[in-house]
Design a protein that fits this description.
By secondary structure, the protein is an alpha/beta fold. The protein contains 12 helices and 12 strands. The chain has a 6-stranded parallel β-sheet with strand order 2-1-3-4-5-11, sandwiched between helices. β8, α11 and β9 form a beta-alpha-beta unit. The mean pLDDT is 89.
């Protein structure tokens, strides 16, 4: 493999001159630049990007810290992040934490050790993000929150209107004539709480009230929790005719519970999910509220790279995107 020394010999210049051409550290005549570039092409020389970055104080790497790569909600965000990063000549380090404190701590340390240029954080845990953002700030590492708690305002944030998600879901069921409408979500989750607030607003806008008997909260946004909570709801003396799940994964588990109970979707129970990551692959297609995850990832990456490349002193900015209802075949009209 050719070295920078080989390029210098081929071009008939010093190693320092080759370095200046590659890194742009000092002016070089156009003739010399062309000779060096021609030598690089002939030899197939590949500069060590990491070493070059460290000399310049940049690694050209951003990290994406996320709760779980198995949840289809997050890979769509990652795709948006990577597409923007690639165009800007950045690489993306994916840090899958599974919400384990030790993993989060290790990835935080890794960001400092590898001289990561910036970090995108997705986490439903308020305490986790507070600690992580503070830790990164102390070390001068820019960060941005992608779909996280709204109470942290010290850094840039890219969010979705979670309350509107719940509103779109419940108001659609009401429009279809449903009155016994349930909600399943997650305890202690800001995202779930905001979606529930929107759920209640959707009912109230049509003259209905939320029934505590029809509100079930679990431990996670998982298919298993959706199934468990669905079973609990369907054991009620009078089961709901419509159910809103805090995300599509929970809705899939809920669907299983309905079928296992000898009921049909949407014949007996209508379902609406939120995020629209799985809806299209189900039959019938599930009615779900689409969250623009890919677009959110792109915006977060662009904003972070702008910070890294010099816009550090500007005040923190919050961008909130709007969801939209995607109608499938899991809601029956009772009118």
């Amino acid at each position: 493999m050719p070295t920078i020394k080989d390029v210098a010999a081929e071009a008939g210049v010093s190693i320092a001159t080759v370095s200046a051409v590659i890194n742009g550290t000092r002016p070089v005549s156009e003739t010399t630049r062309r000779r060096v570039e021609a030598a690089i092409d002939r030899l197939g020389y590949q500069p060590n990007r990491m070493a070059r970055g460290l000399k310049q104080g940049k690694s050209q790497i951003i990290a994406y810290i996320l709760p779980s790569v198995t949840n289809p909600f997050f890979p769509a965000m990652l795709k948006g992040i990577e597409d923007v990063a690639y165009q800007a000549d950045y690489s993306v380090l994916v840090c899958n934490t599974e919400m384990e404190p030790e993993r989060i701590k290790r990835y935080s340390q890794l960001a400092a050790e590898m001289h990561i240029d910036g970090v995108i954080i997705t986490s439903p845990g308020l305490d986790v993000i507070h600690g992580l953002v503070g830790w990164l700030n102390e070390r001068g590492i820019p960060s941005i929150i992608l779909h996280g708690p709204r109470s942290i305002k010290s850094v840039d944030r890219v969010l979705v209107d979670d309350e509107e998600c719940g509103y779109l879901a419940s108001s659609y069921l009401v429009k279809q004539g449903h009155e016994r409408i349930a909600y399943i979500g997650v305890k202690g989750s800001t995202t779930s709480q905001l979606r529930y607030q929107g759920f209640v607003r959707g009912l109230n806008s049509r003259g209905l009230k939320s029934d505590e008997e029809y509100v079930c909260l679990g431990e996670s946004f998982s298919q298993q929790e959706g199934y468990r909570l669905g079973k609990a709801l369907l054991r009620r003396p009078v089961h709901p005719t419509g159910i809103v799940a805090a995300n599509d994964l929970m809705a899939v588990g809920l669907w299983e519970a309905v079928i296992e109970s000898g009921l049909g979707v949407p014949k007996d129970v209508s379902l609406v999910g939120i995020d629209n990551t799985l809806a299209a692959v189900l039959r019938p297609q599930m009615t779900s509220v689409r969250i623009p995850t890919y677009e959110m990832g792109k915006i977060a990456a662009r904003q972070l790279i702008d910070r890294i490349d010099g816009d550090v002193e500007a005040p923190p900015m919050t961008i909130c995107l709007q969801p939209e209802l995607v109608c499938g075949g899991t809601v029956a009209s009772l009118r």
